[in-house]
Amino acid sequence: MGLACVDLFLAHGPLAMKATSRAGLEKARAGQGVPLEEQGMQKDPESGDEVVDLEYSSQNFGEAVGVKCSYIPNWQAMQRLVSTGKACAVGVSNFSIAQLEELLPYAADVPVSCNQIEAHPWLPNTELIDFMHKHDIVATCYCPFAGQKPNRQRLLDNETVQELAKKNDMGLGQCLQSWAVGKETVPLGKSQSEERIKQNLAVRKLPAGDVKKLDPLKQEGDQGRTVDFSKRWGVTLFK
Predict the structure, then answer these.
(1) What's the confidence (pLDDT) of residue 236?
(2) Which string of DSSP letters, residue by residue, matches the chain?
(3) Which range among 59-63, 88-92, 127-131 shows the weakest confidence by mean pLDDT?
(4) Minimal CA–CA distance to 90: which of 68, 102, 74?
(5) Distance from C-alpha of 13 to C-alpha of 223, rounded to nearest angstrom
(6) pTM of the complete model
(7) Count of alpha carbons within 13 Å of 68, Cβ hemisphere only?
(8) pLDDT at 191 over 80
(9) What is the largest CA-CA distance in the chain?
(10) Which of 20, 104, 109, 186 could be stapled to 24 by a disulfide with Cβ–Cβ 3.0 to 4.6 Å?
């Protein structure tokens, strides 16, 4: 990358993946379409997917299957990126309350700067976000417009979202990102349209009454979740 220091080093999830070898990791390269072996990761011969390394994954995964494991060695290695000047901050992604609680006793000197999670009116994640605010962890949110469900249902097609966007003279993405900012989170909306990118960045405060109109869109349990790799990795995420 040609950088002396990165602003934020983010762990993608509360799981570790088995490496091919130390030498494989040292020469690994990332990128879409890069074979797992060239990324330094072992490949399951049957599924072709990554192989989870429970020993270095969050402890609640091990508790479910009677295996001792901990994410702390990974976290402490990440913290050394800050102490050695290679990163300005470190954070995590897709961590639950229980998994954040595992890290917090080891986060006094180098804190958990953020936790990147899925959040939108279908899946507001209120309890987790409140916990993060309590512990000064920034809530960054991917999929603020929600992904498309298997039945092709989209949050952007919801009548309430469309009515509120029209009422407030906003684009649909702009409306949903304004809702997210109103929840004191940092939405990470994506678009390939320059016009929509500009709209999405121009967040405005939604009237309190309009925010409440979006609250009933919440779906029970994990039904509102549109990104979940639990089946692929053979674990129960987000618990």
Answers:
(1) 87
(2) ---S-BS-EE--SS--B-BS-HHHHHT----TT--GGGGTB-B-TTT-SB-B-GGGS-HHHHHHHT----SHHHHHHHHHHHHTTSBS-EEEES--HHHHHHHGGG-SSS-EEEEEEE-BTTB--HHHHHHHHHTT-EEEEE-TT-PPPTT---GGG-HHHHHHHHHTT--HHHHHHHHHHHTT-EEE---S-HHHHHHHHS--PPPHHHHHHHGGG--STTTT-----HHHHTS----
(3) 59-63
(4) 74
(5) 20
(6) 0.91
(7) 0
(8) no
(9) 58
(10) 20
Q: Amino acid letter at 233? A: W
Whose tokens are 């507001």? That residue is 124
